[in-house]
Amino acid sequence: THIGGLHLDDNTLLTSLHGLEQLASAEGGLAIWRQPLITSLTPLSGITDTIDVRISGCTGRTSLDGLESQTALLAIHLESNSALVDISALAGHSYMDQIELRSNYQLTDLTGLDDVHTVNTLAIGSSPLTNLAGLAGLTTVSDSLHLENNGSLTDLDALQGIAPTRDITIA
Q1: Contact, 159 vs 135, CB < 8 A?
Q2: Angle at the Cα of 70 (from 74 to 14), degrees rounded to 5?
Q3: Is the dihedral of CA 46, 76, 119, 103 positive or negative?
Q4: Residue spans of beta strands (DSSP E) within the chain
Q5: In this structure, are residues 94 and 71 in contact, taking their beta carbons and an 8 Å threshold?
Q6: CA 47 to CA 112: how far, in whole Å?
Q7: DSSP-derived 3-state class of residue 88
Q8: Which among 135, 136, 170 has a CA at the least distance from the CA of 153?
Q9: How many C-beta neighbours within 10 Å does residue 156 have?
C-alpha cells in the first residue's frame, strides 16, 4: 500500500503500530510525535522509500529498528527521545540532506551514520556525546554544521576530514 505520508501525533495511549505492516511507501514522510508507549517501529519495516523521517518526544523507544529498509532517506530529525540509545538502523546512506539530533539524552554514540560522506546540514544539540566518531567518514557538510550544548563533547577529531563549509557553530 502506498500513501503520501504517515503522521502520528499525540496518541498517548497507542501502544503499537501493528496493523501498518502492509505499508510499502510513505513518500511524503514519516512523522511520529509524542508517542510515549510505542516502543517498536518494526511494523513500518515494509516502507522503503520515505525521504524524511521525524521522530520527536517518543520516550519509550530505545532504537530505530524497523527503519533499516529505508533506501531513499534524505533527512532524519530526532528530537527529545529520552530513551533513544541506538541509531544503527540508519546505516547504509552515503548522502543525506539533513541530520538533526537534538535532546536525545541517552544517545552516546553515532553508530549508524558511519556511511554518510556528504550532508547539507548537520545539527547535534544537547546530547551526552563525548566524541563524534560515528561521523568519521564525513567529507562534506555543504551548508551548515551546528554543535550546540553538547557539554560532554571532548573532541572533534571525526570532523578533521571535512571540506570547508559555509557555516559552523560550536557552542
Answers
A1: yes
A2: 105
A3: negative
A4: 2-3, 6-9, 25-26, 30-33, 52-56, 75-79, 95-102, 118-125, 140-148, 167-170
A5: no
A6: 19
A7: helix
A8: 170
A9: 12
Tens of pLDDT, residue by residue over 4-22, are 999 999 999 999 999 999 9
Cell numbers at 24, concatenated: 510499502
Question: Quick check: helix, strand or coil at residue 55?
Answer: strand
59/39 Cα distance (integer angstroms): 8
Q: How far is CA 14 from the centre of its chain?
A: 22
The answer to whether the beta carbons of residues 26 and 53 sit under 8 Å apart is no
Instruction: Using alpha carbons, select from 45, 42, 40, 46 the residue that is nearest to residue 1.
Output: 46
C-alpha cell at 126: 544537547
Q: What are the pLDDT digits (tens) for 32-74?
A: 999 999 999 999 999 998 999 999 999 999 999 999 999 889 9
